[in-house]
Write a structure and sequence with these properties.
With about 280 residues, the protein is mainly β. The chain is about 15% helix and about 40% strand. It has three helices and 18 strands. The strands form four sheets. It has a five-stranded antiparallel sheet, with no helix packed on it. It has a five-stranded antiparallel sheet with strand order 8-7-6-9-10, with no helix packed on it. It has a five-stranded mixed beta barrel with strand order 11-12-13-15-14. Helix 1 crosses helix 3. It is elongated and about 90 Å long. The model has no long low-confidence stretch (mean pLDDT about 90).
Length: about 280
């Protein structure tokens, strides 16, 4: 049978002046056109060709020997060619651009930017893109605890944390307890693998191990104190919400870094304030 959105081997069943028709060996009655400009030189009836099936601008099934950047159920990084009234159109290597409907966008996209998307068949039996890639990401990542990886942020959740597509193909999560700071959708970040779950999904941290991260956190805190003219209007007992807002840190990370600064004699706490020395 002919499989929309997939690459498959089909056999040339007949030749016409505008191309050749192809069919699957197990379903010779249903065929699809491969336009003449894409027919390999010397191809003849009975030959097998590997093609990709999609729909043309008239919504007719058509074959191509071009290599699409995305196939059914897979994820990939595509460029936005233009935006319109019904969504955005992505360049996926074929003549007809791929529609990314508004309701499948996790944020509004702009012309020229790259987005991580998956390919699916909509209710009208047409190929479309979605930025809701969670169901399409793999869980068999070749990484272990302690490995540093690169991932693209594709969704944020107040309940769970920051969803990250590691290498644009594997499921990763920065848990809520680790999700301090700004994490814009689409941004690529370096993370440390903190856990590999039984289901193969990765728990991540955007921070180094505590003893490595502490020096940087301490430097960042000193910069913020400078912005407050050398005196923070609170001490290390301030609420986690204030710490997250001002420093993008968890409370534990903040207390560790302040402790380092106290030990080094760079700050002093008195009157429920932190003074830079």
């Amino acid at each position: 049978m002919l499989r929309l959105g997939e690459k498959q081997e089909l056999v040339i069943t007949r030749q016409v002046n505008f191309g050749v028709y192809l069919a699957a060996e197990d379903d010779p009655q249903n065929d699809v056109l491969l336009p003449g400009k894409e027919v390999p030189e010397g191809a003849k009836k009975g030959d097998s060709l590997e093609v990709f099936l999609y729909k043309d601008s008239s919504d007719r099934l058509i074959a191509t020997v071009r290599e699409p950047l995305l196939t059914l159920g897979k994820t990939g990084l595509l460029t936005v060619k233009e935006t319109g009234k019904i969504g955005a159109f992505l360049d996926w290597g074929l003549e007809k651009d791929l529609l990314l409907p508004f309701h499948e966008q996790t944020r509004r996209v702009r012309e020229g930017e790259q987005v991580l998307a998956a390919l699916y068949i909509d209710k009208s039996k047409r190929l479309c893109a979605t930025m809701n890639v969670y169901p399409y990401l793999h869980v068999n990542a070749p990484y272990q605890i302690g490995d540093m990886v690169h991932g693209r942020i594709y969704e944020t959740s107040e309940n769970f944390g920051i969803f990250v597509a590691v290498d644009d193909r594997y499921q990763g999560l920065i848990p809520k307890r680790e999700a301090a700071g700004e994490f814009p959708i689409g941004e690529v970040i370096e993370c440390r693998v903190t856990n590999v779950r039984e289901d193969g999904k990765l728990d991540l941290s955007a921070r180094q191990k505590a003893y490595l991260q502490m020096d940087k956190d301490a430097e960042d805190i000193l910069k913020v104190i400078d912005e407050f003219d050398g005196v923070l209007p609170f001490d290390d007992k301030v609420s986690p919400e204030v710490i997250r807002r001002e420093f993008g840190l968890t409370k534990n990370a903040f207390k560790r870094a302040v402790g380092r600064l106290l030990k080094e004699g760079k700050v002093q706490i008195r009157d429920k304030r932190i003074y830079k020395l």
